[in-house]
Amino acid sequence: MLYAVNPEWRTHSSQDVNSQNDGKEVLIGGWIQQIRDKGRLMFLTIRDPSGICQVTLHQKNVSEVVWETCKKLTLESVVSIHGKVKADSRSKLGAELTPDSVIIHVVAEPKVPIDLTKMKTKMEIDTVFAYRELSIRDPDVAAVMNLKSIVAQATRKFFKQNGFTEIFTPFILTASTEGGAEQFSLDYFGKPAVLAQSCQFYKQAALSCHEKVFGLLPSWRAEKSHTTKHMTEFWQIENEIAFATDKEIMQVQEDLIAFIFTTVARDGEDQLAQLDRTISIPKTPFKKIPFKGAKQMILDLGVEEAQEEDFGATGESALSKSFKEPFFITEFPVHLRGMYYASNPTNPEVTRSLDLMAPEGFGELSSGGQRVADYKVLEERIINQGFEVSNFEWYLRMFRFGMPPHAGFGLGFERLVRWIANLSHIREASMFPRTPDIYSP
């Protein structure tokens, strides 16, 4: 091994090996993605977070130490290479690196269980997640995760610019806090507890000290759903605004989506190109369709489903595919919504709630609406939905001591990334997804 060129392991990236840097000396570090040994000629492809570059070795033009060092390399070995950039129109990348020194940090085992080059066979989806600690090295996966980071940063920037306070709510709750069977139970020092299905109650409580709040927070739901849009562990963009109505939070979502897409189009250009994905900024305002109207549209599309039940997967997909822009479904019936959704004063059977739907078949992104702010109405809702009032003691207490009218929503973070990146399954939007079938690595 030879490493005496620079005290730093890496001062440049693969992107610096380009025709504009012809003749420049660079020091790069990364993983060996491909090896082509032609006897006295060797080609190496080096991958780092910025991309890939080609290293070309002619035995007669490099030192014996460099040649013998590179002969030891295996796929996914980690190296640092110093050399000179040489522009070459014959190279797919427009330039190559001629090394004068090489250090091997790690020699990887000779048989990598997955083909990260995708040159031999396309990886089976089960293999991708069985070896997820390796498959995240795939440039396509890295592009998705980079887009996810851009979306998260854009989300926080949007809310900060609009005067919102970020909150951080608890994830371990008493077993009585949330109703339903879709809970992950755990033992909390001998007492029953559950992982949070949402932060709904806590973001409402936060309005007592902050008028406008948001959070990028995890949720857990023990649903054995094997669909393309469900995971058992996922993140949500949460929002709640005091003195707001359902109309105002629709405006917030429209502005948020437009802001995120604008940011991704500007800052995620390389990632979108890697994924061969073209996006356009959604046009606002989004169309609003009442629940009954959406049901009729699904029927007109040839999908039969009960008119008084929530949307089925087939109907939702068909409706979503019929739109080229996001849209809202509004006026959901009371029996289909949570106890905290306010009713329409002119039609008590209908809530002032809404779902934001993505086009192209990606379906539901968020649910939200105006909340019940009256203690007696909320208590009655709890009873009517079959819950024990005593299980909601602290939640109801804050309404007894004054809660303003308010509204909010929860938007699926991975669902949004899936739509932006045009992914076939939501698990592809998670670095280490959790589904009914996947809980390792």
Task: Write out key terms for the chains shown.
BirA Bifunctional Protein, domain 2; five-stranded antiparallel beta sheet; 27% strand; disordered N terminus; OB fold (Dihydrolipoamide Acetyltransferase, E2P); eight-stranded mixed beta sheet; 12 helices; 18 strands; 28% helix; 2 domains; alpha+beta; 441 residues
Q: Give me the side-by-side strand order of the main sheet.
A: 6-10-11-18-17-16-13-12
Q: Describe the sheet with the most strands.
A: 8 strands, mixed
Class by helix and strand content? alpha+beta
The first-level CATH class of the largest domain is given as Alpha Beta
The total strand number stands at 18
Number of domains: 2
- The CATH architecture of the largest domain comes to 2-Layer Sandwich
Outline, from the CA principal axes? Answer: elongated
Radius of gyration: 27 Å
What's the helix count?
Answer: 12
Query: Strand percentage, roughly?
Result: 25-35%
List the helices and strands in order: EEEHEEHHHEEEEHEEHHEHHEEEEEHHEH
Alpha-carbon distance between the termini? 34 Å
Q: Give the name of the CATH superfamily of the largest domain.
A: Bira Bifunctional Protein, Domain 2
Could you name the CATH topology of the largest domain? BirA Bifunctional Protein, domain 2
Helix content bin = 25-40%
Poorly predicted spans: 1-5
